[in-house]
């Protein structure tokens, strides 16, 4: 009995988490899928009526904007955050004297809730109050920076604030990655006279693929959940130009009392996310098993 | 022995807790009046409540004009733990009733003669299938136009009586470098201006057909195209930094003379008064050009709760909300007028008097209309569909015809 | 020869200057919002209305800070953020500890006791990190009602633990996976049990990754608004809900200085964690979590 217990203990220990995840993640996804086939309004109902909610969803120009924005925002946010994080990490790795202070400065935005940093960003990006006004006051009268109020560019201001918040964290990941690269190899390359840039591009960066995975997971997670960011910065505006699926879903479910519609948008959103994330994770995890 | 002691201890604890819970009426109140002035207004209610022996538990959730509060409300109802009273308004009261979530407070209403003291149209919003299920707090008027008095007088201009006059006045101001219309580019503010324009240009019947009955003929009419045309003109009167601006900052622009007009509900008056401005002297108020009166009635819906003390708390609260004293004090603070018709307006200002007189007149004339932009006329999904179109049109260079086509489609899609 | 060394030296100095220049530009980008928040919180409302956004305050006043902490109205109660601060502490600390412990033992099982299907379970947990939280609000509310945790601090802890497991497991699993499996094998031969190995071998090795996990979890839970607003009732609302009530009131005077002060106060615990534990954070990451 006790040896059976000991033998199966790892599984027993893992079981509660496993059950919790099945129930509270996958069970709830199934629940959402069910509700997306109903005519739920104010509160969830369970009589299935078919694909009405999906028809409505694809007919909605607002949803088009939201899903487009997810691609624009997600792509740029992940790419720029990774790039910036990597560059800063490499620069910081050059034996900078005040590294500790700089690191904290780059990292702190992650600690702040966007409920209010959104307000600060809103001011700074506002053409009449923020950067544009300041630079104009300096004498550059032709300077314009009005992305926040331009429906075609407003989504990029969301990227700016998003990158501001997350890139420091990515920097920390990359810095850690750089520090754990085998110093012997680098020294050998230096002795051989390989130029510094080449050392980075040919040796160090390729050896950090696992770091890219971690960074990707963290960033993708933040991109999908970028909800506070939009609410705080643009409120989805101008018009609904900066709506994201998460804000669309929230608006439908909670301010419009259209839960069926919200559920269908959630399902589409999860399909999109999973179709991007799953293959990536799958290849990464399989590679690791081969090791 | 030990067992006996334990039983005794448990018994006393139970009786203790029981005696505590019978201490008196209790009510948990979910609302989003959290700013200084608003909170003071609600505190008046809380004070009266506790003077009558009640215990008030405050559950404020601000944000998004109540979106966050509605999120919390759904979670609370689903978990079987609804608050006793919730700040709710318009058709959503009846929607919650249909979900079986609301309590019947008819006995309180009948005992206190609500049907006598409340105007019929307002009473209609408080009833669910003939039973009273909510208590009204105030009447906000939406179709107000606020102006900086000295900006107008120093330029030899006066309050516009028609939209043509408004456009001419605005152009004159623009030529002098004054922003004609202070506006914040948030969807609900766009919708607020839109409905004032629609009422002004189309008249009360048109407004009722289009935004209460959702009549396709009205929605597709030439009048609707004209309404969008006027919205395009209004867009030209707004400064370039309007996007995302909070409404009170727009009010501040009128106050300091940077801008001349603002179209906003009468909560804007509270902002003027808070800054020490005097109505009629520093700032002017008048209804937007055209007939009618758009109202937004704030109210507390009463949710089903378990337990005697909670149900009693709920009833006491309902009684006090419609009580004369609270109706007066709250509305003096908030800029609105009482929902009760028998409250003396002696202490109220000029704008409130205008509002009350117009409400009575339009009630008689059949032009007293629910505001669509503030969730009084339509269900959330439909009102939202209209707002989506309005804000998309206002923030792009879409033509009026395209906007009308989009409007019709969006409303179809929301049904 | 000497000439070329000198040139090299000069190049190096120029490069160095360039490096510091770029890093400074980034510093401005990162610090500007905080700068605006702090200076605004020290200004009077009048000065905010009339002055420039990035101007330094003319008369520094800490009034807004006092208001935000103890007298700002978050509804009828005008007690500032103070009472809500403690709610957040009571939610965040147990939730962080429990989810970290669960993550540690899960990571240990998945990385070191590779039974069949362990990787699938891990993948399922990982995908769970990506579920948008708006989706689970309503069913979770129902569940909390059924298990009688609705509106309570325990309910909020429960929710945060559940949705924290994915990330904590990920962190520990990736850390433990770099520890050779032979260690466990040797210990087993010596007769050590499953829990014994975890307790005496793995936990003592885990300080760096624990720091990382705790910082991550604490930040997430402390800054959470959505769960806080949905699953709390009067008396259990966390600080973010109170902050939101101060900042986002819709029809009233906006006191930006109080808003900003409140925001900084609400962020103080996480800020302090990042400032003081930031060093260990990088070290913890270096120690293996990022090795995959």
Defining key terms:
heterotrimer; A: 291 residues; mainly alpha; MetI-like fold; 13 helices; 0% strand; flat; C: 292 residues; 2 domains
User: Averaging pLDDT over every residue of chain A, what do you get?
Assistant: 85
Span of the ends, CA to CA of chain A: 35 Å
Mean pLDDT of chain B: 88
CATH topology of chain A: MetI-like fold
Using a beta-carbon cutoff below 8 angstroms, give the protein chain pair with the largest interface and the number of residues from each chain: A-C, 93 and 94 residues
Brief characterization of the structure:
By secondary structure, chain A is mostly helical. Helices cover 73% and strands 0% of the residues of chain A. Chain A contains 13 helices and no strands.
Task: Explain the overall architecture.
The complex is a heterotrimer of chains A (about 290), B (about 425) and C (about 290). Helices cover about 75% and strands about 0% of the residues of chain A. The longest helix of chain A has about 35 residues, at about 1-35. In chain A, about 50% of the residues are buried. Chain A has a single domain, classed as MetI-like fold (Orthogonal Bundle). Chain A has 13 helices and no strands. The N and C termini of chain B lie far apart (about 70 Å). Residues about 1-20 of chain B have low confidence and may be disordered. In chain C, helix 3 crosses helix 13. Classes of the chains: A mainly alpha (about 290), B alpha/beta (about 425), C mainly alpha (about 290).
Secondary-structure map:
The complex is a heterotrimer of chains A (291), B (415) and C (292).
Chain A: H1 2-35, H2 52-59, H3 61-92, H4 99-107, H5 114-125, H6 131-137, H7 154-179, H8 183-191, H9 196-204, H10 209-224, H11 228-233, H12 245-255, H13 259-290
Helix pairs in contact in A: 1-13, 2-13, 3-7, 3-10, 4-7, 7-10, 8-9, 10-13, 12-13
Chain B: H1 2-21, E1 26-31, H2 36-51, E2 55-60, H3 67-78, E3 85-88, H4 91-98, H5 106-111, H6 114-117, H7 120-125, E4 127-128, E5 131-132, E6 134-136, E7 138-141, E8 144-148, H8 149-154, H9 163-175, E9 179-181, H10 187-211, H11 216-220, H12 222-236, H13 247-255, E10 259-263, H14 267-274, E11 283-287, E12 293-296, E13 299-302, H15 308-321, H16 324-334, E14 337-338, H17 350-365, E15 368-370, H18 380-394, H19 400-413
Parallel strand pairs in B: 1-2, 1-3, 9-10, 12-15
Antiparallel strand pairs in B: 3-13, 4-5, 6-13, 7-12, 7-14, 8-10, 8-11
Chain C: H1 2-41, H2 45-50, H3 63-71, H4 82-112, H5 118-128, H6 133-146, H7 153-176, H8 181-189, H9 194-205, H10 207-223, H11 226-230, H12 239-247, H13 256-286
């Amino acid at each position: 009995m006790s040896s059976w217990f000991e033998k199966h203990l790892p599984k027993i220990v893992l079981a509660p988490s496993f059950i919790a995840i099945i129930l509270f993640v996958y069970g709830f996804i199934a629940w959402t899928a069910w509700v997306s086939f109903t005519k739920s309004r104010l509160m969830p109902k369970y009589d299935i009526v078919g694909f009405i909610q999906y028809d409505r969803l694809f007919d909605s120009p607002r949803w088009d904007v939201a899903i487009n924005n997810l691609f624009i925002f997600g792509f740029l946010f992940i790419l720029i955050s990774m790039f910036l994080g990597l560059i800063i990490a490499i620069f910081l790795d050059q034996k900078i004297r005040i590294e500790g202070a700089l690191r904290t400065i780059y990292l702190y935005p992650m600690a702040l809730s966007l409920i209010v940093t959104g307000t600060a960003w809103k001011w700074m990006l506002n053409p009449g109050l923020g950067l544009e006004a300041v630079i104009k006051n300096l004498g550059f009268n032709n300077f314009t920076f009005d992305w926040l109020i331009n429906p075609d560019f407003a989504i990029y201001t969301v990227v700016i604030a998003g990158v501001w918040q997350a890139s420091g964290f990515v920097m920390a990941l990359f810095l850690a990655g750089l520090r754990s690269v085998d110093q012997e190899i680098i020294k050998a390359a230096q002795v051989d006279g390989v130029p510094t840039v080449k050392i980075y591009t040919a040796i160090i960066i390729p050896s950090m693929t696992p770091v890219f995975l971690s960074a990707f997971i963290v960033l993708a997670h933040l991109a999908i959940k970028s909800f506070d960011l939009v609410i705080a910065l643009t409120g989805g505006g101008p018009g609904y130009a900066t709506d994201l699926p998460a804000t669309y879903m929230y608006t439908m479910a909670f301010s419009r009392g259209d839960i069926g519609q919200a559920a269908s948008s959630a399902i589409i959103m999860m399909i999109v996310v999973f179709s991007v994330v799953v293959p990536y994770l799958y290849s990464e995890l399989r590679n690791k098993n081969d090791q | 022995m030990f067992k006996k002691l334990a039983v005794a201890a448990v018994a006393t604890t139970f009786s203790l807790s029981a005696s505590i819970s019978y201490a008196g009426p209790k009510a948990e109140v979910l609302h989003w009046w959290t700013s200084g002035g608003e909170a003071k207004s609600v505190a008046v209610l809380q004070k009266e409540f506790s003077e009558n022996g009640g215990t008030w538990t405050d559950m404020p959730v601000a944000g998004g004009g109540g979106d966050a509060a509605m999120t919390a409300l759904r979670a609370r109802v689903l978990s079987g733990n609804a608050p006793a009273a919730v700040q709710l308004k318009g058709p959503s009261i009846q929607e919650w009733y249909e979900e079986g979530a609301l309590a019947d407070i008819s006995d309180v209403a009948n005992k206190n003669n609500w049907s006598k003291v409340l105007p019929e149209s307002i009473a209609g919003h408080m009833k669910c299938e003939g039973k009273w299920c909510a208590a009204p707090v105030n009447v906000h008027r939406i179709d107000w136009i606020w102006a900086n008095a000295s900006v107008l007088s120093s330029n030899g201009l006066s309050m516009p009586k028609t939209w043509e006059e408004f456009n001419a006045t605005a152009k004159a101001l623009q030529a002098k470098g004054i922003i004609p219309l202070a506006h914040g580019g948030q969807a609900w503010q766009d919708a607020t201006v839109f409905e004032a324009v629609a009422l002004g240009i189309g008249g009360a019947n048109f407004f009722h057909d289009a935004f209460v009955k959702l009549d396709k003929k009205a929605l597709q009419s030439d009048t609707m195209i004209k309404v969008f045309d006027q919205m395009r003109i209004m867009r030209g009167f707004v400064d370039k930094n309007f996007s995302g601006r909070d409404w009170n900052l727009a009010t501040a622009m009128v106050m300091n003379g940077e801008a001349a007009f603002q179209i906003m509900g009468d909560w804007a008056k509270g902002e003027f008064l808070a800054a020490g401005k005097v109505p009629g002297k520093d700032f002017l108020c008048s209804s937007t050009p055209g007939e009618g009166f758009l109202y937004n009635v704030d109210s507390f819906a009463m949710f089903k709760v378990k337990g005697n003390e909670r149900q009693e708390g709920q009833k006491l609260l309902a009684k006090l909300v419609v009580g004369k004293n609270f109706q007066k004090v709250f509305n003096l603070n908030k800029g609105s007028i009482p929902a009760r018709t028998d409250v003396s307006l002696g202490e109220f200002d000029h704008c409130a008097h205008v509002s009350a007189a117009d409400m009575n007149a339009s009630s008689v004339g059949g032009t007293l209309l629910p505001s669509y932009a503030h969730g009084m006329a339509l269900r959330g999904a439909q009102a939202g569909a209209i707002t989506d179109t309005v804000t998309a049109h206002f923030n792009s260079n879409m033509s009026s015809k395209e906007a009308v086509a989009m409007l019709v489609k969006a409303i179809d899609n929301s049904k | 020869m000497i000439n070329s060394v000198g040139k090299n030296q000069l190049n190096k100095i120029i490069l160095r200057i360039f490096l510091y220049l770029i890093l400074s530009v980034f510093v401005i980008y990162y610090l500007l919002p905080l700068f605006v928040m702090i200076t605004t919180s020290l200004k009077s409302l009048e000065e905010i209305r009339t002055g420039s956004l990035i101007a330094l305050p003319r008369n520094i006043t800490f009034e807004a800070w006092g208001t935000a902490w103890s007298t700002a109205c978050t509804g009828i109660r005008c007690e500032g953020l103070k009472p809500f601060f403690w709610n957040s502490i009571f939610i965040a600390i147990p939730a962080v500890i429990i989810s970290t412990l669960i993550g540690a033992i899960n990571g240990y099982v998945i990385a070191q006791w590779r039974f069949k299907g362990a990787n699938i379970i891990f993948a399922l947990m990982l995908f769970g990190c990506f579920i948008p939280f708006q989706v689970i609000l309503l069913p979770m509310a129902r569940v909390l009602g059924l298990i009688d945790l609705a509106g309570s601090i325990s309910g909020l802890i429960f929710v945060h633990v559940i949705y924290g497991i994915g990330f904590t497991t990920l962190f520990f699993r990736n850390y433990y996976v770099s520890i050779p499996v032979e260690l466990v094998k040797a210990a087993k031969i010596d007769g050590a049990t499953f829990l014994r190995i975890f307790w005496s071998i793995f936990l003592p090795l885990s300080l760096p990754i624990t720091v990382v996990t705790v910082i991550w979890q604490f930040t997430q839970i402390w800054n959470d608004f959505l769960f806080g607003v949905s699953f709390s009732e009067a008396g259990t609302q966390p600080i973010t809900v109170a902050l939101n009530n101060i900042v986002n009131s819709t029809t009233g005077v906006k006191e930006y200085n109080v808003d900003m002060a409140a925001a900084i106060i609400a962020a103080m615990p996480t800020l302090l964690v990042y400032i003081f534990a930031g060093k260990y954070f990088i070290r913890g990451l270096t120690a293996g979590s990022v090795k995959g």
